[in-house]
Design a protein that fits this description.
five-stranded antiparallel beta sheet; DUF6907; extended; alpha+beta; disordered N terminus; 5 strands; 16% helix; 110 residues
């Protein structure tokens, strides 16, 4: 296994990229990345207790949204991530999710 750092990419960065490509250690980690936008969230954690009982707990954590494009790929992804979970969607899918979340929140409003 090599310990040398890879050369920074020759690929031009999109205007939203804030990544320092020289800091990546592994080629698979090289990517363009926007500034993460962090926010506090409350999410539902499900877990099974000994004996098989399902436990649901509301937990406070930090989540972020950001744009990602892996080097040499053409697709840009919109990521929603916490420290332990991540989902990456195409911009078109993120736009559909945004619209559906807005509609759902409007129906839930008192």
């Amino acid at each position: 296994m090599t310990t040398e750092r890879p050369e920074p990419t020759a690929e031009a960065c999109p205007p939203w990229c804030v990544e320092d490509h020289a800091l990546h250690d592994l080629p698979d980690d090289r990517r363009h990345q926007s500034e993460p936008r962090w926010m506090p969230v409350t999410s539902l954690r499900r877990r099974f207790l000994p004996g098989g009982e399902l436990r649901r707990d509301a937990i406070s954590e930090e989540a972020c949204v950001l744009a990602v494009r892996y080097l040499a790929d053409r697709e840009t992804w919109v990521a929603i991530a916490t420290e332990t979970r991540q989902i990456e969607l195409t911009p078109e899918s993120a736009a559909r999710l945004h619209a559906e979340l807005g509609a759902l929140l409007a129906r839930l409003a008192p």
